[in-house]
Design a protein that fits this description.
The complex is a heterodimer of chains A (about 350) and B (about 350). Chain A has eleven helices and 14 strands. Chain A has about 350 residues and is an alpha/beta fold. In chain A, the strands form four sheets. Chain A has a six-stranded parallel β-sheet with strand order 2-1-3-4-5-13, sandwiched between helices. Chain A has a four-stranded parallel β-sheet with strand order 7-6-8-9, sandwiched between helices. In chain A, helix 8 crosses helix 9. Chain A is elongated. Chain A starts with a helix and ends in a 12-residue tail after the last strand. The N terminus of chain A is likely disordered. Chain B is an all-alpha fold and about 350 residues long. Chain B has a single domain, classed as ABC transporter involved in vitamin B12 uptake, BtuC (Orthogonal Bundle), CATH 1.10.3470. Chain B is about 75% helix and about 0% strand. Chain B contains 14 helices and no strands. In chain B, helix 3 crosses helix 9, helix 3 packs antiparallel against helix 11 and helix 3 runs antiparallel to helix 13. The N terminus of chain B is likely disordered. The chains are: A alpha/beta (about 350), B mainly alpha (about 350). The interface between A and B is large, with 58 and 68 residues.
Chain lengths: ~350, ~350
């Protein structure tokens, strides 16, 4: 009915309605614009400050997604290195860890002419066309945490092999080499988790001591609630489960929280990769005996120094080149442009209090 | 009397143009101008290229979604159909099938998925909200079955470079031509065909539409098939554009699409909306997003702004309607002594 009445209206009234609607929308946008100019005002202020000190290099970190505590720790190291080296530091990222979600952010950095892009790839393929364009424009690209085949350097925390074996060792110490075990991972496509899990499966196959049966591999998508529910589901579906391996900080914390309030507390062994401050209460209450990690801030810190060395031309990414990384010492580039930060750190009731700094 | 007839003549021209769409277009232009001033590297061919490449999936999915919402239905499974189509293509490429076979199968799976939705809604009479929430999960699960945890990126170079190719130095992606064709087709179908008029009637009242001869089941079924077809094509585009086919391709995209369609003036209750409005709204959201990211404003802020914009665009016309009614009441009171 309203269609009919509209048609009978005089044209000027329709025009008026358009103006009114346009005005409303303009007000909304003015709000956005006010917000953005504020940001824009503060950004150039920093720019002029840094450009004053002779063309500061810009380094931008693109993590897998925002709001991940683990990522927060990594970036803290990156920021520290950037400040030490006088580089303009920025971190941008999407809210979700989908394959395509990093692409617009890489594009933005290309367009803004960023010198060094440091990225933890959500997908080894999806980011490549954008990263290739960045490199064609002269930017240096470093991947950390999970690799993509279109970068100058890849910085990894610990050798994949060692991460996998360390977790199996911890599980073996607790439950021996037999029984049903399950894996609670991040997303189904996470390259680093998948690499570790593949290495674990290969080792279980090859090592005569390990006679476990992996009954399930589930994905908590690095979301706390989803991981919690997956843990709950695992124990319901497999009542004889003896151990869970969760090679992700979100997953292990959620699983530990579920176990600590369930009847399975102390019955089912939980190992994996966790942040010490997050896991402390579960070590103290006996839910978890041992878990592992490294200092995630070191990977960001090293990426900062490696980026600077690349941009300065000190290194090109070839095997055998060395560079200084401040407090971490000297590093040598390995095969295929890979750099390893250090060994796996293992935590238990005796040493967990010493690692509160591995936090956010 | 002559004055009145000339007024009617003038209003006929106005009738052709939906003023809400014009206002949206104005807002889009304002956003572009603001962005160009705020960031000197915004107005460039790079922006045009990136922005259009990123917007194509949303634009394509928004077209059938507008048809469906105007008919007072909804399709929440579109992003999952994109996922299952990309997964099919990826799985076939992984088995080293011919790329043409893979592409056709991917789009075909999209059509089948759409047809299943259409069957549930049109012939079993399920509410589309419930049916497509079900298939949203179902198709995403099947995608995981088809491709597992693999991420396939080994597509033929000729295909990927075609999709990412630009028209000369303009920065406009080649694929845009196909998208323009689909937009034109959608405009013709919705606004200039009896089928389209039938959909508006259907959106207002299913009973009334049936009464005036609209084949309700038939129309609904084919709408969902069309939605599946387009989602299948987007799946192909997605795989080639990002060089990556995975089980979670395009996850969550359905809400972005629906938000853009509503922002474009399509009524969630059906019966009202236009394709130009939807096209402008899709571009508006994409431009705001792009501009903000270029200024490196956090995505946290971005989702708040797009949410607020959506609410404002839906509520503003209602408030405006009330104000206008008061206005008309007052002016009518003024006019009456003269007549």
């Amino acid at each position: 009915m309203s269609v009919l009445t509209t048609d009978q209206r005089a044209p000027w009234r329709r025009l008026l309605s358009a103006v009114a609607l346009g005005a409303t929308a303009a007000v909304v946008l003015a709000g956005c614009a006010a917000g953005s100019t504020e940001e824009a005002d503060s950004a150039p202020a920093e720019d002029t400050e840094t450009t004053a000190s002779a063309e500061a290099l810009s380094i931008t970190f693109i993590p897998k997604n925002l709001n991940n505590p683990y990522t927060g720790v990594q970036l803290k190291g990156g920021k520290e290195a950037a400040e030490e080296l006088g580089m303009t530091y920025l971190e941008v990222g999407a809210l979700d860890a989908a394959a395509d979600s990093q692409v617009p952010f890489i594009q933005t950095e290309v367009q803004n002419g960023t010198d060094i892009i440091v990225l933890a790839a959500n997908d080894p393929n999806a980011v490549c066309s954008a990263l290739d364009e960045a490199r064609a424009g002269g930017a240096k690209v470093i991947t950390f945490d999970s690799d993509a085949d279109c970068r100058d350097l890849f910085i990894n925390q610990v050798e994949e092999e060692e991460v996998a074996l360390g977790q199996l060792r911890q599980l073996f110490d607790q439950i021996g080499g037999t029984g049903e075990i399950a894996i609670l991972s991040a997303t189904a496509n996470a390259p680093n988790q998948n690499a570790w899990i593949a290495a674990m499966r290969a080792e279980i196959e090859a090592n005569a001591d390990y006679e476990w049966e992996i009954v399930a591999e589930v994905y908590g998508d690095d979301e706390d609630a989803k991981s919690f529910q997956e843990a709950q589901g695992l124990l319901q579906a497999y009542p004889n489960l003896k151990g869970i391996i969760s090679p992700t900080t979100v997953g292990i914390a959620a699983t530990a929280r579920y176990l600590s309030t369930s009847e399975y507390k102390g019955q089912v062994a939980l190992v994996g990769l966790g942040l010490p401050p997050q896991m402390k209460e579960f070590i103290k209450d006996g839910t978890v005996t041992a878990f592992a990690l490294w200092d995630p801030s070191e990977v960001g810190f090293l990426a900062g120094y490696a980026g600077k060395a690349l941009a300065d031309g000190t290194i090109t990414g070839a095997e055998g080149e060395t560079f200084e990384a401040g407090k971490l010492g000297t590093f040598t580039i390995g095969e295929n442009g890979r750099i390893i930060v250090g060994p796996l750190l293992e935590f238990n009731a005796d040493n967990i209090d010493d690692y509160d700094y591995i936090s956010f | 009397m002559t004055a009145l007839s000339s007024e009617i003549g003038a209003s006929k021209i106005w009738q052709r143009i939906n003023l809400r769409d014009v206002a949206m277009l104005g807002v889009l232009l304002i956003v572009i101008v603001i962005n160009s001033f705020a960031r000197d590297n915004f107005a460039s061919t790079t922006t045009v290229g990136y922005l259009l490449l990123d917007v194509i999936p949303i634009m394509m999915l928004a077209l059938p979604m507008a048809f469906i919402i105007i008919s007072a239905e909804i399709d929440l499974s579109v992003a999952s159909i994109v996922g299952i189509s990309a997964a099919t293509i990826g799985a076939l490429v992984l088995r080293e099938e011919n790329m043409v076979v893979a592409a056709v199968s991917g789009v075909g799976v999209g059509v089948l998925a759409g047809a299943f939705n259409g069957f549930l809604v049109a012939y079993l009479g399920l509410p589309s909200l419930a049916a497509t929430i079900g298939t949203l999960a179902l198709y995403r699960g099947l995608a995981l079955v088809i491709i597992g945890d693999a991420s396939v990126g080994s597509f033929p170079e000729t295909w990927t470079s075609f999709v990412q190719g630009k028209l000369g130095a303009t920065g406009i992606p080649t694929v845009t031509i196909a998208v323009l064709f689909f937009i034109a087709l959608a405009v013709m179908l919705l606004h200039y065909s009896p089928f389209g008029r039938g959909l508006f009637a259907l959106g207002h009242s299913q009973e009334a539409a049936r009464f005036v001869g609209v084949k309700v089941q038939h129309a609904k079924f084919w709408l969902f098939v069309a939605s599946g077809l387009v989602a299948g094509l987007v799946g192909l585009y997605w795989a080639l554009r990002y060089g990556s086919a995975r089980s979670d391709s395009a996850a969550g995209l359905e809400l972005t699409v629906i938000a853009a369609v509503l922002l474009g003036g399509v009524s969630i209750f059906g019966g009202r909306g236009s394709i130009p409005g939807v096209v402008v709204a899709v571009l508006l959201v994409a431009t705001i997003t792009y501009g903000f990211r270029l200024q490196r404003i956090s995505d946290v802020v971005l989702v708040i702004i797009t949410g607020a914009l959506l609410i404002a665009s839906v509520t503003a016309p209602n408030y405006y309607q009330k104000i206008r009614e008061r206005w008309r009441f007052i002016s009518r009171a003024k006019d009456s002594p003269a007549s």
